Here is the input.
Amino acid sequence: SIRISDPEKEKTKAITGSENISTDLDVKDLTLFPNFSNGKTGLSFNLDGRGTMKIKILNSDLKVVFSEDVSSFQGNYMKQIPLPQNGIYYITINQNSKWFIKKLIKN
Here is the structure.
């Protein structure tokens, strides 16, 4: 299972490099679900705004385990991503200078 929560303030600062960033990117319908057939995790969400979107999945050491940039993105995003081990991960989505950051606990 995967639990989603808000990250600690110091983690947000470490991830973004700033204390004064806008974390109000309006990500709708964030869903994470295991795909047992390929061992990956399904990730989906919706963004109403248009612009280059950068998505990253970081491990507990804040090392990138998945990264993708999509230009002129708007709408529904769906991807199979590798989350190989149980533990803590962070998902970051950045678009138009706004951020969405969540802590994921996979167990």
User: Anything to note?
Assistant: Residues 9-16 form the longest helix (8 residues). The beta strands are 2-5, 27-35, 40-59, 64-81, 87-95, 98-106.
